[in-house]
Description:
The protein has about 375 residues and is of the alpha/beta class. The protein has three domains: about 10-60, no CATH class; about 65-265, Class I glutamine amidotransferase (GATase) domain (Rossmann fold, 3-Layer(aba) Sandwich), CATH 3.40.50; about 270-380, Homeodomain-like (Arc Repressor Mutant, subunit A, Orthogonal Bundle). Helices cover about 45% and strands about 15% of the residues. It contains 15 helices and 15 strands. The protein has helices at about 45-60, 75-95, 145-155, 155-165, 180-185, 200-205, 230-245, 245-255, 280-290, 300-305, 310-320, 325-345, 350-355, 360-370, 375-380; strands at about 10-15, 35-45, 65-70, 75, 105-110, 115, 120-125, 125-130, 135-140, 145, 170-175, 190, 210, 215-220, 225. The strands form five sheets. Strands 8-5-3-9-11-15-14 form a seven-stranded mixed sheet, with helices on both faces. Helix 6 (about 200-205) links the parallel strand 12 (about 190) and strand 13. Helix 12 packs across helix 15 (about 375-380). The model is unreliable at about 1-45 (pLDDT under 50).
Amino acid sequence: MDSDMDGTTCLFDFFSFKPQDDTKDKPTYGDTECVITSILRVDCDSAFLYLWVYIHQLIFQKMKHISILVPDGDSSLSNLEATFKMFNMTNKALERAGKLPLFSTHLVGTHKKARSSNGLFSIIPNTTIEEIDKTDLIIIPAIHGDYKEVVAKNGAFIPWIREQYNKGAEVASLCIGAFILAGTGLLDGKECATHWLAAREFREMYPKVNLIDDRIITDENGLYTSGGAYSSLNLNLYLVEKFAGREMAILSSKIFEIDISRISQSPFIIFKGQKSHSDEEILKAQEYIEQNYQDRITIDGLSQKMALSRRTFERRFKKATSNTVIEYLQRVKVEAAKKELEKGRKTVNEIMYDVGYNDPKAFRVTFKKITCMTPVEYLNKYN
């Protein structure tokens, strides 16, 4: 630290950190290699505050260790490359916003020998499963070929994936990578998506898994799967939103030109946590609201459809969802409006009518109550 001529400013070195390959039992901020990238001239008091905040972030914000598997066989190069790039570009966007990078991304194999993709490209992992004691997220790409042979050839991944899951890691499969994930037994009794062309073979190999043919994404107990082909990009985007926030997901969707609304067949996946109850009539009511939110829905009409008295229906709805019926309906309408505003293709008034509001003031007040922003502010921020 050097004093400036008037003694009121100081020079501070600002460090940035490069990812490291050796992740075993070490912090993941790349502490083994730091490079001075610039020198900031700032007020001394501000500099000390900035430095304190930066060190605090460095200590308490742990980077997520992501293991993108490189299986033996004909792996999907597009899955590997796009996944690696999306998480790393999110890091760069965070850094531009003055924040620390969030992801430490690695290509992981059972060995470090090159693999071939489509007979044209070579893929070389930068680490192996033996070198990783703990990871936060495992991503399994699609591997082409005979499905039984693919799973058998990559059997060494199976116990490692189970071990990491038991340690707290989450696991995602892209497209037909679901065959390897299902081979761990972790999907037994759970929902799963894969390419529709592989549905028959998948059901034959894994009858205990609940395969959902038309689902783009499934998310259950830290296990994620995606549908066929490029819907894997939507799962990556979903994971970016989960770990880095909605704003970063929207930015990524624009950079990669992905339709963020295709994250799920249901535009209301955000309410999944409110469906973890066993009240069948209330589940039916929730589904009805989500499918007919544009129409005029009354509590009396809903309770009659569920063959319940209004008082009983309202009590059970609040107990099951932690929302009143009106609150839930408002949230569904606002969620639908948010997704349309993010696309930026319609005016606020058009969206207001589309989601079932006729009064601009009522729409604006409800929207702001739920999002803490007016519709126009939301449009300007996320479009």
